[in-house]
Amino acid sequence: MKLCIDFRKLNAVTVFDAENIPRQEDLFNQFSHATIFSSCDLCKAYWQVPLHPDNRKYTAFQTPLGLVQWVRMPFGLVTAPATFCRLMRLVIGQTPDLLSYFDDTLVFATSWQQHIVALRTLMMLLGRHGLHVNPSKVSIGSSSVEFLGHMVSSGTLVPVQTKMDEILQLSVPVKKKEVRSLLGLVNYYRYFIANFASISAPLSNLLRKGTPEKVQWTPRCDQSLTEIKRLFSSPPILIIPDMQETFIVRSDASDFGIGAVLLQDREGILMPCRYASRKLLSRECRYSAIEREALALVFAVTQFQRYLIFKHFVLQTDNKPLSYLRTGSPKNARLMRWALALQEFSFQVVHIPGSENVHADVLSRLC
User: Fold this and answer.
1) Which helix (H) or strand (E) segment is 258 a member of?
2) Which domains are present in the chain?
3) 178 pLDDT exceeds 90?
4) Under DSSP, is residue 94 helix (H, G, I), strand (E, B) or coil?
5) What is the rounded distance in angstroms from the CA atom of residue 360 to the CA atom of residue 15?
6) What are phi and psi of 203, to 5 degrees?
7) pTM, two decimal places
């Protein structure tokens, strides 16, 4: 049981405390070579943070026994998440083979010797700061670990089965609120699915401004939901990017959407690291075919910029005119602007047959 007090009035006059929360993508990328995992949760995490004596009076609340004030950080304070994240950042720091996300702490390594050293380091750091773990939430020496709704194992990332079951059991929404809830669940895993934006477009269109609160469910909406369930019926797998290896980027465009995939070679097989997609804006739908393909290319490089900006990569396209975008001087002003936007990247453009562009070239006709 968690005791939570209504601190809304206190929060309204509290100076907001900002703290940089690590990106989940950056956390997952640290596991690219890890094969051994341990995890632990802190016991009643917030309650392990003492409140300054001068601030305790502000947390007082009424009980049948009179006023009671907190001496440890309670749930509900607007500054609590930032304070706790800052604490764990200071405790763990940049220690190799350790990471923390709120009260979840992971140890990961490629060998048992390395793993044991990291475990000892974690216990020493927690003990030094008087932090206690929950024994029932400790897992040591596993080949896989559940972290932030994903199963991590030997350089791969898979959605947890419980979330996949939730997606498969989704029912037809009746109101906009239910559509938002549905999209909120599946959007969390959208980077596992090629051209998710195009596939889910009939559902997201239900939330457009001016549409009725009661959903007008159409055959295309039904087709969209069915396709989403099909794609998640067998857990999709992504490989965790290896920054030491070459990246391959592919992109493609349809009349209604653009999509991209970031790939790497694993034992002679191109495997997806991440997918990205979005619907075309109304004005973009009027672009010529070459302009839409170029837009998809720029979108791909922009979406995967964090992996590509400091590395030479291969850009594969099944649109031959795009092969000259890097070296030529397009007469089209829009194409020229995009060519200039790509000049800060180092890449080689390789033309491939359309039949080989299967990762990106599955833009749905559902829009």
Assistant:
1) strand 257-266
2) 8-158 (3.30.70.270), 160-233 (no CATH), 246-356 (3.30.420.10)
3) yes
4) coil
5) 46
6) -80, -45
7) 0.82
